Amino acid sequence: MYQHDGEDVFVIDAHVHLWDATEENIQHEGGEEFIQCFYDYHTTFTPDDRQWSIEEYRKYGADRMVEDMFGNAAVDMGIFQPTYLTDFYEEGFNTTEQNAELAEEYPERFVLNGSFDPRDGDEGLEYLEELHETYDVPGVKLYTAEWRGDSKGWRLDDEEAFEFLQKCSDLGIENIHAHKGPTIRPLNRDAFDVADVDDAASSFPELNFIVEHVGLPRLDDFCWIAAQENNVYGGLAVAAPFAQNRPGKFSEIMSELLWWLGEDRILFGSDYALWNPDWLVEEVMEAEFLQEHRMEYGVEWDLETKKKVMGENAAELYDIDLEAKRRQFQDDDISERFGLEDHYASGEPAPADD
């Protein structure tokens, strides 16, 4: 657990991946463009001494992911958000089945989400049922700009998409994570437009719509929608690393989110391995709002707000008992591997990062 101002903060990284972008797995030029664009984001918002080589970045593997996330106790749990991209990558970029190998090894530390694509029709509905039956997924990650043959995307408010959202509702899959915001070469930015969230959220009030990347660069559109729909949440992946080298922009984004949505509907996410929580969590926790934003918006980035954003809000959506988890982590495999047993037992601060 991260310690801040003498108090423990349980951190749930609500947006992580275990991907394979090796040249052997790329079957379409879009796959190479995609990982190169990811790497550009990585190097732009990562401190110079923490940047990876492109070779490391293509495929880092399960062991490194576990160490990056939990080795210095910056993160206590992670939520897998799959990204299939099967037109670009022969075996997929990171599918539910691939993520499951690690999630099933450490089920106490990871939440495994599924996915759907309404262009798959009846086969897609059957696949969603299969994911539910096999893994009991509590959520799905959706990529509306994914290419499929001649199609360069789909909309959440399509009639076909509504069939899948209804299936989610029927199966009890409550958390709908949608990538809405920044484009990734060669995908279409308009296919990531946040506008289609509004009708979907209104039509399925029993579901939670977590808009990943808070709609950036369309933050205003996202905030106006979220203000209307109480079941719309903001995921901070991509927004969070602004804390590192654009602190004024981070202050502005967070002030807007807290003013429009309040402190109960914002979730931290690193988007690992785009960025590494072993340094990003500290950057976000130690960030300060500009005085002009505090005066204009009347919001604060105080300890209670940080606790909610960094973990409590995700725990609420995923029915995670944080105190029970803390007790469990006193002697789980991860704590044993990294020597964190006393850390969870006593609430002592995390070991210093190297």
TrEMBL record:
GO MF term set: hydrolase activity
SUPFAM superfamilies in UniProt: Metallo-dependent hydrolases
Pfam families registered for this protein in UniProt: Amidohydro_2
Amidohydrolase-related domain sequence ranges: 12-320
InterPro entries, per database record: Amidohydro-rel, Metal_Hydrolase
PANTHER family: BLR3681 PROTEIN
Name of this protein: Amidohydrolase-related domain-containing protein
